[in-house]
Design brief:
Length: 184
């Protein structure tokens, strides 16, 4: 075993005939000429946290409750004061988590497509939501899940901000959501 010498691995030789067989019938994909006039990608960026990725998709930061980052001051004030008229409400009471996600996605997508600006999703407060009396008590699954869903890649581009509304509109068992304006 002492007299073993390392073997130098040689890279395989390029087999041109095998390459031609493997690529037979493959056609080059035409890439758009960057100098050609095409429809411009219109994106309103007011915050340095938003970036345009190489693929042309807008990469947005995750939403946080009560955050108005990227919203102009006047709109942010109106949102915080709940001055936007609620144009649609989705009540998720009694829904399973899987059904609720589909309903949330369809609801937000439909509201955005129809030009609505402000909606409310009622998640409910969940069972045993009695403050800090029992830290191990179960909490509402949807109350915790829906805010995460609002930051998903499918839903986030349609939403500007969200917060828990005043008690008269559902309090901590609801989400007051400001949708982006649909641009033509």
């Amino acid at each position: 075993m002492k007299n073993l010498k390392p073997i130098k691995a040689q890279p395989p030789k390029f087999d041109e005939k095998a390459w031609e067989e493997a690529t037979q019938g493959v056609k080059k994909i035409k890439t758009p000429n960057k100098n050609q006039d095409s429809e411009p990608l219109i994106i309103e960026i007011k915050d340095s946290q938003k970036t345009l990725t190489a693929s042309g998709m807008l990469s947005l930061p995750d939403l946080e409750i009560d955050s108005t980052i990227g919203i102009d001051n006047q709109t942010a004030k109106k949102f915080k004061r709940e001055e936007f008229k609620v144009e649609a409400v989705l009540d998720l009471h009694g829904q399973t988590e899987k059904n609720a996600y589909d309903k949330v996605y369809n609801f937000i997508n439909s509201a955005y497509a129809s030009g609505k600006r402000c909606v409310i999703i009622i998640t409910g407060k969940g069972l045993n939501d009695h403050g800090d009396e029992d830290i191990f008590a179960s909490r509402g699954v949807l109350k915790n899940s829906v805010p995460n869903w609002l930051s998903s890649a499918e839903i986030r581009p349609m939403i500007m901000a969200y917060k828990h509304p005043s008690e008269s509109k559902g309090g901590s068992g609801a989400l007051y959501i400001l949708l982006r304006r649909k641009r033509a």
